[in-house]
Amino acid sequence: MQRRLVRMTLALVATAAGLSVLLGLKTHEITLVAPVGVQESDDGVLHVQLAASVVASPKPTPAKTPAASASKKPKPKATAKPKATPKPKATPKPTAKATPTPTPKPSVATPGFTGPVVIAGPYGPVQVQILTSGTKITQVRAVKLPDGADDIEINDIAVPKLIQQTLDRQSAQIDVVSGATYTSLAYIKSLQAAIDLSRR
Amino acid sequence: MSHPLVHAEHVWDTVVSIHLGGEDLRSQQAALTAIVAWLHHVDEVFSSFRADSVLCRWQRGELTATPELQEVLDIAGRVEELTEGYFDLHWNGVADPTGIVKGWAVDHAVGIAMRHGIGDLMINAGGDLSTRGSRGNGQPWRVGIADPADATTIIAIVNGYDFNVATSGPSERGEHIRCREPRTALAASVCGPDLVFTDGIATAAISAGDKAIDLLIELDRQGWFSQLLLEDRTLWRSAGWGR
Fold first, then answer.
1. Distance CA B4, CA B123 (A)
2. What ipTM does this complex have?
């Protein structure tokens, strides 16, 4: 098999507040979900863009959807600390302006943990070790590589300013869906319809 | 504990989902009634499918712009300016504000809800939405961005309080999007103040083609954060959106 360098981009998700809560807890569940983009550059490097969700899991909860892919972990409910009093602001503004995270640099004496991470991607399972410093993710290292990959590099870690996650078919995790305008007819089969029905 | 009132209204050939938080059912119902009436009023005034709508009659020169229509036209001009002309009111040869009417109507619907004392709410007009307050118990609203290739799949989630999200794609209905530039994104999502502007920017990002990123970087500085699903299915995000 051709030796290929796999480069990965990890989009990590949590609020600054949420992250500190998460990292302050003993148990973590890190789930890297399906790659959101795969691209092969001229030099044969596969660029795999991943997205991850980090959630604290005091007790793993069973998956709600049995149909969920077997390689994926049941996603426990995120326990980000709810804001005590959300203040409706005069100017609607996307919230949670966390400071942009600098490029990952090894930091001093950081508590680290190895997440049991499985990527359900086309290149097989990858286990990832995550090092933290305070509330910041400082380094992500692959400790188990997919077949056919001789090197793996995970970079571009940033805690988003907006809280975001990438995942699939997790309607239980969302309240509303934004997408290109649907017709009345298409609505019936939409995720939004499912959400509306479930909350009535 | 809040008990949201949830309603889906078929109007504008799409569905408007309305979630009104709070505990006071009487206020929630009053707000819902007023919002639903407003949505249908907007349909009558601005429908491009009804020959007798105010918009169609104005376009034929049969009447002068009503204050409502003038308000929308004025905003359309500001959206054009904001998007360096990539949102084009005259894409069709005549002034056609259809592309921003939904966003404008939702902005007003949010105002109606708030005047009824509803502080926690979400209104989603066929994929372009506005949130206020929290989803309940102080928790942020969680907005999924649908994959244009499969509307039952989510490619990103944006959580927060008091924000608007609009998503456009090249296959957007209404055809108010004219692509002048070669490459386009598969979907453009924008998050920011006022749904009418947020929606107009999402539309402009698609019609701007390969100029979209320059435009969106500039608009990011002005408070509209965006994400593009590019043709190779990678995601581009402006600084404010994060990674």
1. 12
2. 0.89
